[in-house]
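FORM 12-B: Structure-to-Sequence Request
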């Protein structure tokens, strides 16, 4: 259908049919009526009738090819105008084959593999009947207390934007209508959901519009520039107004300024939640604010279906707003080819063939090994041949390595670290003991762990959070490992054995109690279906770790939020004068994070030299060439992530001490050197001024190039205006 035909279809619909298209319900509602026709259960609680269900436009959380086929076919039999359903789900980092959590994917700094992971997730989802995924989540994060940092790619707006584009390309491909094994992507959560006060889930977000535009909006814009089909409004307030009812945000910035013509969907029940926020008196006012703001689909509350008809009759809402929303929904259904084939990619045979297939698991493994970050190593890793290893800790044989948003992934399918090491080590070389649970320890567990460790040459600790300790609704004020795990580390330390710790978790942690006790620390995150195999190969040296942090690790929760691109303040701390009182510092902790953005070690070492700029002064019409030599000074091949940062010395608005502008990943053989070339343009020096203009300032800039945001070489140049 062309646009004219879709508009004609809208005109054929009754008001009730149009409003029902704006309603999204879970799959349970389509099976929610008793045989006697009485409405029961959640339908009754929400005041949803069978007629509303029969005309609703989309389904949430139902997957499985045959089940989707059955629902769609039954729905189409009752559809007066033959309008098919859209099926949507949270396919965040894999469908059946689970990839590392997005924060870990970010730590790969590899957008090609990120795109591949999204393409595989789309393929598995599409053959199982899904049309839309609620991903990517691109919220910028600076506070690891917030559990949903696991769903983002980190604290930097530039890097997040690159990953946003990669995920959208992976999910949607280049021909979403012609390729039935792709999904429509829904970028979330618009906007600034990743900045809740206190790191507390669903909490207030309060920031200036300049900060919003400078740091938090770029990744959403990048996803839309890549063609993302849908936007999800966030739970939080933006400038005191809930995002779901925020006209300036949704109609002003998103639609008018950015020109977005796709669908806006509320997050779960967020239209009704405007009442609790104090921005609506009741469901009727919530519906009024949301439709005026531009929310097209209401997820799991009935404010629209109950109140829009009356609001339209009373002249409070122009029916044209509903028509616009319906047309956007129909356009996506047409773009997905659903009018020609309502079943689209749903295919039980293909589903059995490709879900969790060897090819997909191999891709999950590859991303897992590149996502792990080596945080410390005093030479204990990789483990030496013929070494007797004691694997101890609650994650030694744990299946809980998928993370919170693992869709239909099954924990029992995940490769466990202990099993992977047993497959790779000679018989008798590995012994395993739990030592404790995630949050509990028995005397017998500790005794077994100590005996097992005493008989080994080296201890590998497998520690971390349960998956439920991060993700949505899992904010924490204590970022340390559970006390029993720290006690286990302390007890094993008394044996005097070399110890390497592997961490399975969904957020940056306060590592005190581990990092000073262990000789090596490997951050594995929740590494996905093949995580055990990936970690085992890193420990044994079959793979050289190359991950780099995309969130800073705090020294203490008292530092939070801690991030690399901070302002200097008018009274900055001079590191050589730590006894100064009247400067911006803590009296009981360093200002610096324990581990900075961009940080990560390797089994080899790299040296930087010969930083050269093509000029000490450039105009706004020129490119600055930046050259640096990187040398592998170690004994084995490795991958280095060469990072380029700038600092604007004097701006109309104060600028961060460092800002990531580019990076390159290179592989170097032992003793090999490469000259790396970056180009920097005037456009990359722009920022939002106090009047929100996007422009650069003349003056001095610093250039930093190095292996992370802290350890860099430095040079400078001046930007001047061309005549």
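FORM 12-B RESPONSE
SEQUENCE OUT:
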């Amino acid at each position: 259908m062309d646009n004219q035909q879709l508009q004609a279809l809208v005109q054929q619909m009754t008001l009730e049919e149009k409003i029902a298209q704006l309603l999204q319900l879970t799959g349970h509602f389509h099976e929610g009526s008793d045989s006697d026709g009485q409405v029961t259960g959640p339908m009754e609680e929400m005041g949803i009738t069978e007629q509303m269900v029969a005309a609703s436009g989309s389904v949430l959380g139902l997957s499985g090819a045959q089940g989707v086929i059955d629902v769609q076919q039954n729905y189409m039999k009752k559809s007066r105008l033959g309008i098919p359903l859209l099926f949507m789900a949270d396919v965040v980092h894999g469908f059946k084959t689970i990839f590392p959590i997005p924060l870990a994917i970010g730590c790969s700094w590899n957008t090609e593999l990120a795109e591949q992971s999204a393409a595989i997730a789309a393929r598995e989802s599409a053959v199982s009947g899904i049309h839309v995924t609620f991903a990517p989540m691109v919220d910028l994060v600076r506070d690891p207390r917030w559990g949903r940092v696991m769903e983002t790619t980190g604290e930097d707006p530039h890097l997040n934007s690159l990953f946003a584009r990669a995920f959208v390309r992976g999910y949607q491909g280049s021909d979403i209508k012609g390729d039935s094994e792709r999904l429509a992507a829904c970028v979330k959560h618009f906007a600034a959901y990743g900045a809740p006060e206190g790191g507390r889930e669903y909490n207030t977000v309060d920031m200036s519009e300049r900060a919003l535009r400078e740091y938090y909006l770029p990744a959403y814009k990048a996803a839309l520039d890549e063609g993302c089909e849908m936007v999800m409004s966030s739970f939080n307030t933006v400038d005191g107004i809930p995002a779901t009812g925020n006209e300036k945000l949704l109609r002003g910035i998103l639609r008018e300024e950015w020109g977005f013509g796709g669908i806006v969907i509320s997050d779960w029940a967020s239209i009704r939640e405007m009442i609790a926020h104090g921005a609506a008196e009741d469901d009727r006012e919530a519906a009024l604010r949301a439709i005026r703001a531009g929310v097209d689909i209401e997820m799991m509350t009935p404010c629209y279906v109950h109140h829009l008809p009356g609001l339209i009759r009373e002249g409070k809402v122009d029916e044209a707003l509903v028509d616009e929303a319906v047309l956007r929904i129909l356009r996506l259904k047409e773009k997905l080819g659903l009018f020609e084939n309502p079943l689209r990619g749903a295919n039980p045979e293909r589903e059995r063939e490709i879900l969790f297939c060897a090819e997909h698991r191999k891709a999950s493994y590859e991303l897992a090994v590149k996502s792990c970050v080596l945080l410390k190593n005093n030479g204990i890793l990789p483990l030496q041949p013929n070494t007797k290893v004691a694997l101890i800790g609650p994650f030694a044989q744990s299946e809980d390595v998928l993370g919170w948003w693992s869709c239909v992934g099954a924990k029992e399918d995940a490769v466990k670290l202990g099993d992977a090491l047993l497959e790779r080590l000679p018989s008798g070389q590995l012994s395993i003991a739990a030592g404790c649970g995630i949050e509990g320890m028995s005397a017998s567990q500790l005794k077994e762990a100590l005996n097992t460790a005493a008989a080994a040459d080296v201890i590998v600790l497998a520690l971390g959070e349960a998956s439920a300790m991060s993700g949505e609704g899992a904010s924490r004020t204590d970022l340390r490992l559970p006390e029993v795990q720290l006690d286990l580390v302390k007890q094993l330390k008394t044996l005097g054995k070399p110890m390497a710790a592997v961490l399975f978790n969904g957020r940056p942690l306060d590592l005190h109690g581990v990092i000073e006790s262990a000789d090596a620390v490997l951050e594995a995150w929740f590494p996905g279906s093949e995580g055990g195999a990936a970690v085992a190969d890193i420990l044994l040296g079959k793979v050289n770790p190359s991950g780099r942090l995309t969130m800073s690790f705090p020294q203490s929760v008292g530092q939070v939020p801690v991030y690399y691109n901070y302002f200097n303040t008018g009274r900055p701390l001079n590191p050589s004068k730590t006894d100064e009182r009247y400067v911006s510092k803590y009296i009981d902790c360093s200002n610096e994070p324990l581990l900075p953005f961009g940080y990560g070690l390797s089994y080899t070492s790299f040296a930087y030299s010969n930083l050269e700029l093509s000029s000490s002064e450039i105009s706004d019409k020129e490119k600055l060439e930046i050259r640096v030599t990187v040398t592998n000074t170690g004994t084995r091949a490795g991958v280095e992530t060469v990072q380029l940062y700038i600092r604007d010395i004097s701006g109309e608005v104060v600028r961060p001490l460092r800002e990531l502008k580019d990076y390159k990943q290179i592989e170097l053989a032992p003793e090999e050197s490469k000259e790396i070339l970056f180009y920097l343009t005037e456009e990359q020096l722009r920022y939002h001024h106090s009047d929100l203009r996007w422009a650069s300032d003349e003056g001095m800039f610093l250039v930093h190039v190095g292996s992370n945001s802290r350890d860099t070489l430095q040079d400078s140049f001046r930007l001047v205006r061309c005549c």
